[in-house]
Amino acid sequence: MSRNTVFNEFVLKFGTVNGSGSASANFLCAKVLFRMGLPVSAKNIFPSNIQGLPTWYEIRVSEAGHMARRAGIDVMVAMNPQSYKRDAAEVVPGGALIYDSTLERRFDRDDIQVIGIPIARLCAEHWTDSRQRQLFKNMIYVGALITLIGLDDAVVEQLITEQFKSKPKLIEPNLKALHLGRDYARDNIDTILAVRARSSDKTTGKIMMTGNEAAGLGALYAGATVATWYPITPSTSLVENFERHANKLRRTEDGRLNAAVVQAEDELAAVGMAIGASWNGARAFTATSGPGISLMAEFIGLAYFAEIPLVLFDVQRGGPSTGMPTRTQQSDILTCAYASHGDTTHILMLPGDPGECFTMSVDAFDVADRYQTPVFVMSDLDIGMNDWVIDELTWDNSRKLDRGKVLNAAQLGEVAEFARYRDVDGDGIPYRTIPGTHPNKGSYFTRGTSHTDTGGYTEDGRIHAQTLERIKYKIEGAAAHLPKPVIDIRDPDARLAIVNFGSTDPAVREGLEELDGEGHVMNHMRLRAFPFAQEVRDFAEAHDYLFVIEQNRDSQMRHLLLAEADIPGTKLIGVPNIDGMPLTAAFVREFVLQALRRLPGYGEASRIVAQ
């Protein structure tokens, strides 16, 4: 190794063709690095069509634990001639570009290492079937990476064996392709790359998981038995994972499946079915993305006004309209906070990684039941579809699920008069019943029109206003019982702070470290729920300016903080990002530094503290 070799801090990227079978090989590399004890962040950047367009897969390796996406590629495996120019341009000076040199190519870069491997020719020499030739190209470049960057060949072989254990006939040819790439690189390439992987111990107690799988599993542990959906990118795999885990974990002793997964004809039907199942006593949910939320709005308003528990998973993507279905954004914040017409305010949960997708999924069902209202779990494509390294999931078997104020038959027998929408306890939350609980007590009419506290129809504006105020009061009361913001006081004297939520957190935390190194020390708050807790207002009060970082054009969270937390607009500096890519620390740093130059008294400060 060269004395200048950098170990375990690099970005490896694959430029391939959508539909070429490269996805499994690329993910295999991420899993190998993870099993070598290295924290990895894997980002799948793919088109919304089925086949033929360029697709990319980025793996950031950081033993220091920096898991945000990073601009600049150290090792590029370029397998798509259509994107050669773009791929070569992304390689940092001193980095390496690996390509299929069956057809020699010229790359107009003299500051990078260009490594040619005749991948197609090697495949043609060993396989006659055209599909096999295409698929095994991917395994050949994985094999070459064993030699070139130090992937552990024993770990690669073990993972291949595990991957094809249900199809054992595929193990040998995949290992053959792997060894072809490894041996060719060993025998023909003497280039020493500037970066390399070596085994470490930084992933002990960690797992790799997508947010959609974690959320689906969380719904299962929450006791959900009904999932209704209409397929839409990027939420589809959430329900698929719920169904997959239910088939293993939700079987009765006689083998029957104690769960129902219904694919509806459209999003409106899907949410309507979920509302009906929840009204009937089941824990039910639906999963969708922004376009689906728009279509569901009418029924969401019904659940809000009729006070029916409902959990909705919104895995956000680029909009508006069809927008960018396979790119990430956080652009449904205002839509979900106020979904439906009329006066509505909804509870939002804002997970920051797949681990929180699991825990907040369980919490969402408890909150929906306790407050008898829709609850949105606001994930996004980056969290939902990409693999994150997180702590192992844990579950407390003593935890009791909170079904809220549901009267059983004995309790109904003691009630002189059951009034479905009456505030008995002064907390705005009425008591409810489940159909069939009692032979002659507890029935009521569920309607979306204005109603009395017994469920009767009314056009009395005073009663209607009282109902709306009571619902508002109970939703506001939920704030104290939702996930608290994560607050990091990095300097008690700092008067500037960064506020963010969701998947932007790794980039924000790394960006804060970079700003620290330049003398700009700032505090940090990650929002995790709406309505906002008192801690959010207190944090804002303690600072002069808050940089609100979010992935949408219109700074929607900033508007929500302004409107619902009564934070002066002069304090809130919007930091919007809308390119559809996972946020980078460089973006955070550069935007904040530019903004600082415009703030009186802060631009030249070596340490951002009280002036």
From TrEMBL:
Name of the protein this chain belongs to: 2-oxoacid:acceptor oxidoreductase subunit alpha
Keywords: Oxidoreductase
Keyword Cell cycle: no
Domain Pyruvate flavodoxin/ferredoxin oxidoreductase pyrimidine binding, first and last residues per copy: 218-380
Keyword match Cell membrane: no
Domain Pyruvate/ketoisovalerate oxidoreductase catalytic: 19-182
Originating organism: Seohaeicola nanhaiensis
Compositionally biased region (Polar residues): 446-455
InterPro entries assigned to the protein according to its UniProt record, in alphabetical order: 2-oxoacid/accept_OxRdtase_asu (IPR022367), Pyruvate:ferred/Flavod_OxRd (IPR050722), Pyrv/ketoisovalerate_OxRed_cat (IPR019752), Pyrv_Fd/Flavodoxin_OxRdtase_N (IPR002880), Pyrv_flavodox_OxRed_cen (IPR002869), THDP-binding (IPR029061), Transketo_C/PFOR_II (IPR009014)
Top-level taxon of origin: Bacteria
Membrane-spanning residues: none
Region (Disordered): 440-459
